[in-house]
Amino acid sequence: MTRRPLLVLPTSLTLLLGLALPAEAQPRDADVEVGRVRHVTAPIRDCEPWEPAPRGPAAWQQPSERCVPLAWREALPPHRLLDAHRRIRDAQAPAARLAVIDEVAREWRVTVEQVLTLAGALPTSAERLAALTRLHPATRDAGAFHRTYGLLSPEDRDVLHVRITRPLDAETARRQARLRRLAEEERALQRALGD
Q1: Which residues pair with 32 in a beta bridge?
Q2: Which residues pair with 74 in a beta bridge?
Q3: Cα 65 to Cα 107: distance, rounded to the nearest angstrom
Q4: Per-residue model confidence (pLDDT) at position 167
Q5: Any alpha helices (H) in the chain, and if so which ranges?
Q6: Do 152 and 129 contact (CB within 8 A), yes or no?
Q7: Rounded to an integer, what distance in angstroms lies between the CA atom of residue 122 and that of residue 58?
Q8: Cα 34 from Cα 27, distance rounded (Å)
Q9: In the chain, which residues have pLDDT < 70?
Q10: How far is the CA of 63 from the CAs of 56, 59, 147, in angstroms?
């Protein structure tokens, strides 16, 4: 049985020397003699300098793009709540304020008191409506969400109610009743077979 190399790469002395030398030490527009073959190198173009990712307070103010599933989310800690509230108050543009709200809604579980704190920092009723709509799915105690209606104008209260209330039509009610009936029948069968 003969052994064959797994990977054969075309290599030359120039290539190997070029990899070993830093960019500053590599010849520019020079002819390199390799054995009996004369190799003409092309001019080396200067590449754009690499800039590392921003760090520090400016990077912390950028909204994060990660989204944590609801089941894995932790409660919003007080220091994060205060930081988000400060960032909302300091932001001049409505888009920047709502970006902070989006970040909180994607990463944390919040209470109604925290929602009141964050949405109350927004200046207009329209921004508060958008924030309350975005924060409702992340709220742990959504049953008490009606307390947030006081932050809105009467027209926006109706809009928020429509946005966060699950629609219940006759077809949905029939499906839910059927599922409840089937679950009860399944439990009855399990009791009968288990005895």
Answers
A1: 39
A2: 108
A3: 9
A4: 66
A5: 13-20, 57-60, 78-90, 94-107, 112-120, 125-135, 154-164, 170-194
A6: yes
A7: 22
A8: 14
A9: 1-66, 167-168, 195
A10: 14, 9, 28
